[in-house]
Amino acid sequence: MRKVMAVGVFDLLHAGHLHYLEQAKALGDHLTVVVAHDDTVRKRKHEPVTNQDLRRRMVEGLKPVDVACIGNPPEVPIFDILPEIQPSVIALGYDQEHAEDRIRTALEERGFSSIDVVRVEGLSDDLDGTRKIIARIVERAKGGEF
What is the pTM of this model? Predict the structure, then answer.
């Protein structure tokens, strides 16, 4: 069985997330999604709108997802989750800041050279990201549409 691992925050779940996970699932037979720990989101991005348990439940309810789990807190190395999940492929979203070459090198250094790293394509919609959706809502609220 070819296991795929996808990672993300998944705050304010939207069509771009679904597109990412559909593409990730197409890379294998089983999709495990690692939902970012609340402390990781706070450290790297922003205060999460929804907590990690709710985000995990929402993601796990999506059709392409076989299993969703909460990632490690930021003080735990990100690669520590790999022995538990044992992916054949790590699927990266089109807008994730991770560099494929750096991930491949880090995987090799840790003895995981058999794991493929694949960047999937983005959704061709103008509202394919949480920040874009929030910006649109704020713009419309300022214009009196709400």
Answer: 0.86
Q: Are 86 and 4 spatial neighbours (Cβ–Cβ below 8 Å)?
A: no
Phi, psi torsion values for 2, nearest 5 degrees: -95, 110
- Give the pLDDT of the chain (146 residues) as one tens digit per residue: 999 999 999 998 988 899 999 999 999 999 999 999 999 999 988 899 999 999 999 999 999 999 999 999 999 988 999 999 999 999 998 877 778 889 999 999 999 999 999 999 877 666 556 667 777 778 878 877 76
Which two three-digit tokens encode residue 103?
């991930």
Task: Name the domain count of the chain.
Answer: 1
In the structure encoding, which two tokens stand for residue 139, read together?
A: 């713009």
Q: What is the span of the domain harbouring residue 76?
A: 3-142
Question: What single letter denotes the amino acid at residue 16?
Answer: G
| DSSP-H helix ranges across 26-112 | 38-44, 52-60, 82-85, 100-109
What three-state secondary structure class fits 16?
helix
Question: Cα(70)–Cα(91) distance, rounded to whole angstroms?
Answer: 17
Supply the CATH number for residue 23's domain. Answer: 3.40.50.620
